[in-house]
Amino acid sequence: MDVKRGEISTIETTRDRYGYPNYARVVSETADKTITKPLVIPSTLRRGALKKGTKVLYVEFADYSGAIIMRADGETSS
After folding, report:
1. Domain span at residue 20?
2. Is residue 42 predicted with pLDDT exceeding 80?
3. Higher pLDDT, 2 or 27
């Protein structure tokens, strides 16, 4: 498992119990520009810190599940 870098492609419509989105898809910065399956958004970033185009660091596992670790700029709000 490697930490990867990419850009938010879409924010999924699934919501947590507080009404915030809890999954996003990311376009990888690799040459092939693959789009991930929905990745878990950590609770610290669910309140508007992510939008389409935000650069993030993320992990992806062998089964293509994964999680966003943080915004690439280190911010936690928009």
Report:
1. 3-71
2. yes
3. 27
Instruction: Name the nearest CA neighbour of 50 among 29, 28, 17, 26.
Output: 26
CATH no. for residue 67?
2.40.50.140
Tell whether 40 is covered by a domain.
Answer: yes
Q: Is residue 78 in a domain?
A: no
Statement: residue 69 has pLDDT above 90? yes
User: 28 Cβ partners below 8 Å, 6+ apart?
Assistant: 4, 5, 6, 34, 35, 36
Nearest C-alpha neighbor of 37 from the set 73, 5, 71, 61: 61
Burial of 60 (0-12, 13-18, 19+ CB in 10 A): buried
For 11-25, give one letter per residue: b (16+ CB within 10 A) or e.
Answer: beeeeeeeeebbbbb
Kindly state the tokens that stand for 60. 């992806």
